[in-house]
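QA checklist item 7 of 12: single-chain prediction sanity check.
[x] sequence parsed
[x] length recorded as 256
[x] structure emitted
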Amino acid sequence: MRQALNRVPRVTVDFWLIKLMAVTMGETAADYLAVNMGLGLTATSVIMTAILAGAIVLQFLQKRYVPWIYWWVVVLVSIVGTLVTDNLTDNFGVPLKVSTIAFSVGLILTFIVWKAREGTLSIHSITTDRREAFYWLAILLTFALGTAIGDLLAEVFGFGYVTTGLIFLGVICVVTFTYYALNASAVLSFWLAYIFTRPLGASLGDYLSQPVEYGGLGLGTVYTSLLFLIVIAVTVVYMTIRYEAELTEGQEEWPA
């Protein structure tokens, strides 16, 4: 019953798989729309923000977790989060160091207000509009922050895509170890992992899509985005079937 009322999915292996795919696609899709299609950064940002707004409204109207709608919003938030950081860097000249600090402060303040108003930061209790609003604001800030951190290490510090990806993979492994072996806070571990899977996915997307002369494999944004879109679609279908089966089983076990 609690799972049926919650508006976001349980944290499972396929959750992290599709999340990584979504953030990777967000990176490549943003580049494809702005550069390959020639829309430009500003027009792409306006269009994708408007689409995200419509998807968010649809998500809030459900009052429960609907896999395809939820993950569609995650993909869109990933794209818009990338565009927010890119706009600050390219259009307004904000250094990535400043963006990283600003998004970090914004995320911390969001968590402070969220905890003060709701008493918990657990994603297992997203059962009201206000909690869901805090949740999506935090998600947007994690994507923007992850983009800024990833670009900072890969471009400003010159680590490149592969090394940057390995750095964040190592960070995620440390977070996982402290959670399982040292009983670290589940809420803190989740949000740290959520933040750092963003630059990991972005580094993976850049490595696959960027030309060989820039340190990538040269697959291009079209094929890279299409590849991850297929993986996301297949995983969402599987998650939908499993979720509906779990709800049916729960209803059968719940006393009349």
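[x] summary fact logged: The longest helix spans residues 220-253.
[ ] second reviewer sign-off
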